[in-house]
Amino acid sequence: MNSDPMRRIRGLLIGPFPPPIGGDTVLTNNLWKSRYWAEHGIVLDRVDTSPRAGVRLPEERLTGRDLLRAGRVLAGVLEKLPRTDFVLLWSNSRFIVTLGLPVILACRAWRRPIFVKPFGGSLPGRIDRMPFVWQRAVLLILGRASLLFPETRLLDHELAVGLGLPRKRLLCLPNFLPDSAFCQPFSAKSFSGKCVFFGQVKREKGIFDIVDALAERPALSCDFYGPMLERDRVSFLARISESRNLKYRGALDPTRVSDAMRTYDVLLLPTYHVGEGYPAVILEAFAAGIPVVASRWRSLPELVEDGVRGLLIPPQSPHKIREALDRLSADAPLYESLSRNGYEFVRSFSEKAIVEDMLIARVREIIGTQSRL
After folding, report:
1. Cβ-Cβ contacts under 8 Å for 247 (sequence gap 6 or more)
2. What is the pLDDT of residue 60?
3. N or C end: fewer C-beta atoms under 10 angstroms in the chain?
4. Which among 203, 371, 199 is positioned nearest to 268, based on CA atoms?
């Protein structure tokens, strides 16, 4: 590796970019566009891994088109790798345990540091379901990455304790919001019953639980935003068409989510999605000064401290959604406290705090160490 201090550092970001609009693609795009790379003399190239095929289920079978895309991705990585000083692999668990493995090995062969961030929290479960021999191979190769970036404390624990990956290779790196999300000062307001759902519109995100909770409550309303899974389209649209207080608003441009969020009173996220990590929409809600009613599921209690920044409910419990909203309606001091606490808490998830102070600092540290060897 060239250690000339006058030469700009070159990085390669491998990950999914929009379309489609989703948590993974938006996060990767925000990282790509961060101004802190240029401020630290880093030129970032990219290889796009997005299937561009709308919302898909994790268990969907690979197709011939997926294999062709994998070939293009791997060819792009190998073409750019010799001119790269470090690699960021931002990907879902299926990509990591398939195409991610030769990418890691290629980086090792070229002596390029590679930093791997698994989206969400599904990686341990996917590895556990593998045949033993393949499981051992996956863990051996993952252990050769420079660092793995679990986004939650739960995932960090599962990778280290459950799967035995070395602690020195793990560093929690949560999701972040662009600095522009923190431009508006906190503004207290009262709860009027306007609820919102942002995310992939699919059963596992609790959309039908919201419908069941609010269908007979005309004083409450909910607007749904996000790309819709085809499997659930017909039944979901039929259900909300029966209630005037429930509306599907389509997929919103990510740059407009913060402004839209401020027009509502509470974010509803009663998810039981197996791969849930730190949903960026929760951070968006906190930055907009509104609390969250979410399920007590996976790592969500790490973000939504019950009674402090929001209210937690059991998964698949529509009546508990109603009870939580009734509580917010009846207790104005509680509503304001939850809103203010979330707004103050989310500052630690800013672009500067995560991208500059954590990610870039660690990348430069490891590059500097390797250049001295």
Report:
1. 221, 222, 223, 224, 240
2. 64
3. C
4. 199
β-pair type (86-91, 147-148): unpaired
Question: How many C-beta atoms lie closer than 10 Å to residue 239's C-beta?
Answer: 16
Tokens (6 digits) for 344: 């103050």
Give the distance from CA 212 to its chain's centroid: 27
C-alpha 296/C-alpha 345 separation (Å) is: 19
pLDDT of res. 7: 65
Q: HEC profile for the chain?
A: CCCCCCCCEEEEEEECCCCCCCHHHHHHHHHHHCCHHHHCCEEEEEEECCCCCCCCCCCCCCCHHHHHHHHHHHHHHHHHHHHCCEEEEEECHHHHHCCHHHHHHHHHHCCCCEEEEECCCCHHHHHHCCCHHHHHHHHHHHCCCCEECCCCHHHHHHHHHHCCCCHHHECCCCCCECHHHHCCCCCCCCCCCEEEEECCECHHHCHHHHHHHHCCCCCCEEEEECCECHHHHHHHHHHHHCCCCEEECCCCCHHHHHHHHCCCCEEEECCCCCCCCCCHHHHHHHHCCCCEEEECCCCHHHHCCECCCEEEECCCCHHHHHHHHHHHHHCHHHHHHHHHHHHHHHHHHEHHHHHHHHHHHHHHHHHHHHHCC
Cis-peptide, bond into residue 20, ω within 30° of zero: yes
Distance CA 316, CA 209 (A): 6
| Mean pLDDT estimate for the chain | 93
Q: Using CA atoms, how far apart are residues 318 and 301, in angstroms rounded to an integer?
A: 19
Share of the chain above pLDDT 90, in %: 86
